[in-house]
Amino acid sequence: MSDPVIALVMLGILVMVIMIGFPVAFTLMALGVGFGYYAYYQAGTAFFDNRVFYLLTQNTFTVLNNDALVSIPLFLLMGYMVERSNILDKLFFSLQVALKRVPGSLAVATLATCALFATATGIVGAVVTLMGLLAFPQMLKAGYDTRLASGVICAGGCLGILIPPSIMLIVYGAQAGLSVVKLYAAALGPGFLLAGMYIGYVVLLAMFKPHRAPPLPKEEGDFSFGKVVLMLLKSFFPLALLILSVLGAIMFGLATPTEAASVGALGSIVLAAGYRSLTWAGLKESVYLTARTSAMVCWLFVGSATFASIFSYLGGEAIIKETVLGMQLNTITFLLMSQLIIFLLGWPLEWTEIIIIFVPIFLPLLSHFNVDPLMFGVLVALNLQTAFLSPPMAMSAYYLKGVAPKHVLLTQIFSGCMPFLYVVIICMIVVYVFPGVALWLPDAIYGR
Amino acid sequence: MIRLIHGIDQISKTVGHAFAWCIMIVTLGTCYEVFVRYVLDNPTSWAFDMSYLMYGAVFYMAGAYTLSRGGHVRADMFYRLLRPSTQAKLELVLYFLFFFPGILALVYAGWDYGYESTRIGEVSVNSPAGIPIWPLKMMIPFGAALLVMQGVAEVLRCILCIRTGDWPTRLHDVEELEKQILERAARDAAREEAMQGASK
Asked: How far apart are CA A105 and CA A206, in angstroms?
């Protein structure tokens, strides 16, 4: 067997072991060491003198002192603190009152709450379960279609991994060698576009099919204008200000992502204190969960660093490039193919594995097809929204099912997610056809 | 055997929890840097090195703790459909094929790497402050050794599961919010069902 074929065998074993369900980080490392030992094997050298050992530690250390990844645990801490700050019910209530006159107001308020809260926390499961307890029963009580109500919560909950400051974009930036700052600027437009399209869909539906999203009775929740503003000031603005100051500081180059994330983390602790929900137990929980989730993400980097360098040393990267170039694709068919593969990978895998292991396989091909890596990152981030929404493995749907009343069926939740899945696909097409949605802001701030 | 497993879990947890607090050091240290740099125009020389040293410590040393909590990402689409004893048999084999080789190599190679750096007392070249980076390199073999130990605990878990047909318990610890909520919802539903059953 030639070396490139062995590289493909290595990739094949990886996919197989992942599918069996073994923790991915260690599988990557073991395969990297095993195949690396073969790749660097020289007859006559002692067993432990193989160069793979040096490569392994060197690669591990590059992840350990990678300053682009420092903001990951900081944003996680911020998210866990916001999650525990008791802000959600106030936020949802004030938005619901403020949006009272909009058709489908409950669903619109749910989407807006999800978008803001998910952006601050960046954690899908918590948003979906919390909103499943808070907004879902209210929508059902108001006579909303079960499917619509489920779709709104599942789709809204996923926005946090797209809208900056999202951890997914930091991870993509680290793998693609892009500045997180530019990626954040590029994802902002599409993030708001998608949230806006979700809201637009719900409003249109409420206008033309009012039986699926009936208006609330008039007398309910009538507050004076001043009262509404006061409620928004107490719930919406502090959180929005926290996010905007973190993002603004990063995008206008006032602070590095690490610095902005630190200020955001401290800000979230202050926010929790402001809502009188800062407890020692809550802080401890957040700190420990931060360590666990960071370990989950960053150990994947440790494993994939060695795996990827051995894979490309054996010629695996080159043979994939050759094969794809031999397929006579143009930019559009290449994009369709790559996004379809990522979409399908989203069924069994989570975004962390997809971005750290599989997306790098496409990255060396981008320049050949004249695809801007920023654009590709935005499309991948949009695409991975679908990983949470598409049956049969949509995590959001299972989270919602877990907290929903018993009569709500999983199939209803899935069919409720479908329209939002189509909206994501339309959004991807819009972003591709009008690249300015993504690229205008980074171009305007940083130039070409 | 279960006491040995829980003992190892406890060690991983204690170390993970201890290093987790480094994230507060990054938060407070970097906020201090932001204050002195942007407000007082007098930046520190240590903040940058501190941030990645502490970040590295957080995630690296929490590796074993995360493993003990079953927190490392895996695709369990098919895995979760299997019976516990089948899961355990499969996992037992996979631990020896795809866990120990890589981690043991990291312990061995990391020791040379960390020892060399510690011997010369290596410091960071990023600033004249001379922030030591040998502790970060020395962590490589220690964090990996901790993972080996936790791996042994996981293997023992598999053996226990094959014998009894069910997975042994894990230590109680903090959980993700969604997990807490889902568990509470499941408990409530079960209680409601029991009450309905009683009233019938």
From this structure: 9
Round to whole Å and give the CA distance between B33 and B29: 6
Question: Judged by CB atoms within 8 Å, which residues 275-314 of A form the interface with B?
Answer: 284-285, 287-300, 302-303, 306
Distances A164 to A31, A95, A381, A435 between C-alpha atoms, Å: 34, 21, 11, 18
B69: nearest CA in chain A?
A292
Q: Running DSSP on this structure, what letter comes out for residue B145?
A: H
For chain A, how many residues are written?
A: 448
* Nearest-Cα residue of chain B relative to residue A295: B59
A69 touches chain B (CB under 8 A): yes
pLDDT at B200 over 60: no
Residue A259, both tokens: 């610095």
Using CA coordinates, name the residue in chain A closest to B110: A57
Mean pLDDT, range B99-117, rounded to an integer: 89
What span, in angstroms and rounded, lies between the C-alpha atoms of B141 and B107? 4
At B110-127, the pLDDT tens digits run: 888 888 888 888 888 777
Over residues A107-163, the pLDDT tens digits come to 999 999 988 888 888 777 788 888 888 999 989 988 889 999 999 999 998 888 888
Taking residues A313-321, what's their average pLDDT?
86
- Three-class DSSP category at B123: strand
CB A395 within 8 A of CB A153: no
A218 pLDDT band, cuts 50/70/90, is: low
Work out the mean pLDDT of chain A and round it to a whole number: 87
Confidence of residue A443 (pLDDT cuts 50, 70, 90): confident
Q: How far is A30 from chain B (nearest CA, A)?
A: 4
Whether residue A252 lies within 8 A of chain B, CB to CB, comes out as: no
At residue B196, what is the residue type? Q
Residues from chain B that touch A294, judged by Cβ atoms under 8 A, are: 23, 55, 58-59, 62
Find which of B19, B25, B27 to mutate to test the A interface (most A CBs within 10 Å of its CB): B27
- CA dist A291 and A284 (Å) reads 11
Contacts of A156 (CB under 8 A, 6+ apart): A110, A111, A113, A114, A115, A118, A127, A131, A198
**Torsion sign, CA atoms A54, A58, A60, A61:** positive
Contacts of residue A21 in chain B, CB cutoff 8 Å?
A: 74-80, 90
Among chain B residues, the shortest Cα distance to A257 is held by B30
Question: Exposed, middle or buried: residue A86 (CB in 10 Å: 0-12, 13-18, 19+)?
Answer: middle
Gap between the Cα atoms of A232 and A221, Å rounded = 14
Which stretch of DSSP H or E encloses residue B81?
none
* Most confident of the following: A118-127, A234-243, B148-157: B148-157
Out of A64, A350, A402, the one facing B60 most closely (by C-beta) is A64
Residues of B in contact with A292 (CB under 8 A): 16, 62, 65-66, 69, 71
Report which of A422, A341, A345, A332 is spatially closest to residue A375, judged by C-alpha positions.
A332
Q: Name the residue among B69, B59, B60, B57 with its Cα closest to residue B150.
A: B69
pTM: 0.90
Closest A-chain CA to B26: A262
Q: What are phi and psi of B132, to 5 degrees?
A: -65, 130
Measured between beta carbons, which residues in chain B are less than 8 angstroms from residue A403?
Answer: 181-182, 185
Q: State whether B177 and A130 contact (CB < 8 Å).
A: yes
